[in-house]
What does this fold into?
Amino acid sequence: MSLDTRVLYIVYCGVAVAVLKEFNAVVTEPYMDEPFHVPQALAYCKGEWSTWDPKITTPPGLYILSVLLHWVFMFKCNLNLLRLTTTLTLFALPLVLTRLLGFHQRRRSPPKLAPSIEALVLSTFPIAWFFGFLYYTEVPSLVSVLCTVVAATQNRHWLAGLLGIVSCLFRQNNVIWVLYAYAASQLMRLRFKRGYVELHDPPALGAGPGDFLRSIMSAPKALPELLPAFTPYAVVLALFGGFVIWNDGIVLGDKSNHVPSFHVPQLYYFIAFATMIGWPAVLCGESGPLKVATEVILRMFGNKRRTLLTAIISIFVGITIQRFTIHHPFLLSDNRHFTFYIWRRVFMLHAAVPYLFIPGYQVCAWAWWIRVARDQSLLQTLVLPVLILPTLLPTPLLEPRYFLVPYILLRAQVVDVQPYGIFVEGFWYMVINVATTYVFLYKERVGVGRFMW
It folds into this structure.
């Protein structure tokens, strides 16, 4: 098995190199956000460390990584080799994902250069795969976050803290995932600790509102168990707080176009996106798709109380759609993104259309809950949705790239995808990747440009 997966990993890397070569051959000039990132990286390569483009809103982690590769491997600083920076992190993705999946599945990880088939498939997730060939922060940011989580799950908390600082050099909101790394590691440890544990944390599928309240009430008693490992993460939070004070806010550079908002529907877009992309993982579990569908129906309409709750949630979602939907000017004006056409041709088709998706949002949310909660405790299942809130709620723009880290962490918690499901998932990702890459590379429109996520 180890030899087989190593061969598959070599194939994965070979395909990635071939795709990168084609990207460089066809897209010979910096595109979309690259005209901001590439000159900044070139300035750093020349040693001009005081140079900074005020339109860039993320930290310089991507450029520093390119400079390190330039120093160590004598890479030239040009567009082609700068894009190689992100592709190299795409090579690392299945190796890190193998360990994250092993943590959730509670199995021993294979040899270091023998990623699991499931990790290889998940590494071709369309958002990660596509942006692995452009000079964007997405894949390096994702890999740094996953390394932080993996280090924490291995009880290497000071290393996790250091990696957490590195992750924040790619994107500021990665500080949220540093907290996730700590919480995920400690909740798993307490769940399987021998002897009495103060924290009330029952199996998620059988838990109710009363269990959630008991968990909150019992949390202070568990602090002596939880605090010792928190010190490295507290250091990260303190440093990040210092940065916010020094910078007078979280956003670097052009703050005018990145004003935080209260964008509640962003959560609904995420769960819908996650289901449309990740439906094989949702449906292809040990119990099969029929069991998932039955469970969703029972959760929503199993008795009068659940039916009433579904109706109340529908009303709440409708109110938030009415009050907090944001028609961002970038979304309305930039017709080079798929979201432009989805928004214009679907959501703006009629005023009633956004409300027609409310039942679907609930179905998607319950389906993921059932799949993720199958082998987790209540708090283990809740910690990711809770931390997704401060990540997605302040973002006013509907942008699939924002869903990358939340989706990967969510998908990693689904532990029983059957072999046929992993095959279907890989095939589905491949179809999407071939389509989006083909459109981007070969369907450029004069006066419009190339279409992308």
Summary: The radius of gyration is 22 Å. The chain has a mean pLDDT of 94. The CA atoms of residues 121 and 427 lie 9 Å apart. Residues 79-105 form the longest helix (27 residues).
